Every structure is written in structure tokens, then in C-alpha cells.
Amino acid sequence: NAGVTQTPKFQVLKTGQSMTLQCAQDMNHEYMSWYRQDPGMGLRLIHYSVGAGITDQGEVPNGYNVSRSTTEDFPLRLLSAAPSQTSVYFCASSQQGSQETQYFGPGTRLLVL
Amino acid sequence: GNSVTQMEGPVTLSEEAFLTINCTYTATGYPSLFWYVQYPGEGLQLLLKATKADDKGSNKGFEATYRKETTSFHLEKGSVQVSDSAVYFCALSAPDNAGNMLTFGGGTRLMVKP
């Protein structure tokens, strides 16, 4: 099992550009989510999905879109990048249940100039 | 709302020293509690968890006990190693929350010197 994979590992964007961060998992997990990590703030939830075709907003959704067409993939789209979106982005997946372990990808480091 | 507070770092220790990282939480009901660890350049991985009051999670010499009366989940290790140098995150997952959302503390960086 590869677990949770993310691409790219690092990206530099100019303000106003768009891009898609890719996330895939091979554990057949129903739940997937995107977090951003900023210094001193831990991780904050951007969007999540409880199954194919179902997505919802987390704590900090503005400026981001998601879709879930398959169980395996959960891409995160930045429509018009802003410097405030400079961060490290982590994708995670889990089975259903609040006691379940979340499995995290290695992260994508994004710099918006 | 739910929140997690953990001690700010960095925490610098010598090898074989005793480690405590404090974590307290605010939540309704009985959340599940987690400690995740992030090694340099990597994603987060589960270190240990506890899903009900008085449960003790343990792994790799680390331990934490779910204390409902003090709303705490402090991380301890009796003898740290250089390889334990990492950032440690305390987190909670409220029961019946949509998407299994985790609420994280700010993280504590641990540096262990030989």
C-alpha cells in the first residue's frame, strides 16, 4: 500500500494563478480531508468528503474548491492564488468514526508570491 | 466550540531525560484524543490515541492518559532519544462530527541533544 500520496511536493505560484493539488489514497477509505498547516496554529480543516460525490466545507474553505468523483482521489483547487494561501497542505483519509486514525500524506508546500 | 491547548515549544532536552508535553482540551461530550508526530520533512503520523475516559494510549515508549476530570491528555516518555526530535500535535475528534474532523493544538517542537 502506498497509503496517501500527494503531488506536487513543492510549488511556487504568482498571485492570481490557479492550480490543483492532487491527493490519492489506496486504503478504500470513505473519508478524506484537506488541512493547511501554518506556524503556531496546528492544522486547520479546509474541506472534507464523506464519500464519492459528497463534499463539505471545513473551518477555512474560502479560496478553495474540491470535488470527489472517485473513492481514491480528492483534488484541491486554488482558483486565484493569494499570498495568504502560502502554507503547507496535507491530505488525510480515514474510515468512518470519530475514534478512527487519520492517515496523512507527505504534504505540499505552496509559496504564493 | 472545540479547542486544544498545548504547551509552546521548543522543548530542548538531553538524551535520556524525562519528557512531558501538556495538552488540555475543551469539547462537548466525550471526544477521542490523539497525539500525532511530525518528523522533519514528513507528514503527520499517529503516535497514540485514547477513545474514552481513563484510557491510556501508548506507543514507542510514549504514554498519555485520557483525564476527563481535568480535560487533559499529557504526553510522557521516560527516556527520550535523539530520534524523538520532532513536532508533536495533540488533537481531538468530537463524537458524531461530520467528516471525522480533527481539532489540533498548535504543536510542540521537541529537540533532543546527545
Give an account of the 3D structure:
The complex is a heterodimer of chains A (113) and B (114). Chain A is mostly beta strands and 113 residues long. The model of chain A has no long low-confidence stretch (mean pLDDT 94). In chain A, strands 2, 4, 5, 6, 9, 10 and 11 form a seven-stranded mixed sheet that branches. Chain A is globular and about 40 Å long. Chain A is built from no helices and eleven strands. By secondary structure, chain B is an all-beta fold. Chain B has no helices and twelve strands. In chain B, strands 2, 5, 6, 10, 11 and 12 form a six-stranded mixed sheet that branches. Chain B has a four-stranded antiparallel sheet with strand order 3-9-8-7, with no helix packed on it. The model of chain B has no long low-confidence stretch (mean pLDDT 94). Chains A and B meet through strand 4, strand 5 and strand 9 of A and strand 5, strand 6 and strand 10 of B.
Outline type of chain B: globular
State the oligomer: heterodimer
Q: Could you describe the largest sheet of chain A, including whether it forms a barrel?
A: 7 strands, mixed
Number of helices of chain A: 0
Number of E-state strands of chain A = 11
Percentage of residues in DSSP E strands of chain B: over 45%
Number of strands of chain B: 12
- pLDDT averaged residue by residue of chain A: 94
